[in-house]
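Sharing in case it's useful to others searching the archive later.

Someone asked me privately for the predicted structure of Galactose-binding like protein, so I'm posting the question and my answer publicly. Question first, with the sequence:
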Amino acid sequence: MLHFAMWFFNNKKMLMKLGVSALFITSACAACWSESKGYSCCKETTIVVSEDSDGQWGIENGNWCGIPKEEPGSSCWAESQGYNCCPPGTKAEFVDNSGSWGVVNNEWCGIVEDKPVPKTCWSEKLGFPCCTTTTKVEYTDSDGKWGTENGEWCGLDNSVVITTARKTTTTTRRTTTTTRRTTTVARRATYSVIYKAENKLESGYENWGWDSQLTFKDNAMKVVADPRSYGAVSIKNMRKDYGKGGSIRFDVKSTGRVNVRVESTDEKENILIGNTNGDDSDFRTYKFDIDVNDFPYSFDRITLEDGSGNGDPFYIRYLIYSTGSASDFVDPIDTSYVPPVTTRKPVSRAVYTTIFKSVSSMPSGYDN
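And my answer, the predicted structure tokens:
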């Protein structure tokens, strides 16, 4: 390195003025395809979170960034800046944002380094990284298996090597230690509509209640519990469990208190998550969270119980479960719509009187 520096300053002053300046200029002006879209290019990550017609996108520091494209037709990145690439084994004499530079035959050349193939992780496309320190399955849905790290959800992928070591990148000029940054992206909630405002539950749900009668009247679910029995309707998801946590919303009309509970899939655990005021003379909307810290179990039943125990009827409309919180609950359907109640008109049957038959005289009571 010292020999190169002496040669550089003593014999190639003009090269220093022109070549190095040109190197900095071309490096600084190197095109990044995502900059024209208002985003910088990724500097550390090669994990593809999303891909569109523009290119591949990643996330750094909570912001979108473009993953640099490989130049078609050539594997030499330095050619786009007017330089050739170095032969294998060339020593790095200078490092900038473009890469490592060497000198061959008194000319700058780019050192080609093996780049990792961008790895996609199934959960990245949903806004979550893959787990890097855990293999424990906390939740399973149609997307895949989920774990948690640092209080955040992460996808469990068998192709990802679990490690806690920090990645270290070493050049001839300095050693840079890069730690993986945690990007927090809120997971989009999913919704399960259990009952709307019709004369039946949605497909896949059944009532497993007790000491009560469930009917459908005036576009609502009508529940009448046996007096002093604290009867209930208990709606079971027959297809799968809901998972853990989340929130529930429904509209209720009742003069008595209604308790809301959830029950674990093994039927060993249940918890009261909230109750209504008991003075809802017209339909009122309630939303309750299911705290996973208080109830860390998967559940498949939502129970609405006569909390007053007086047997007064209560009416339910738009019972919906969300994997998100009650504060972030966004109705997935129009819950203001209630089908009009239609009344069937009585059908009047016609009455017929026989006046004349094919006989020799008129019936009694008729004259010509």
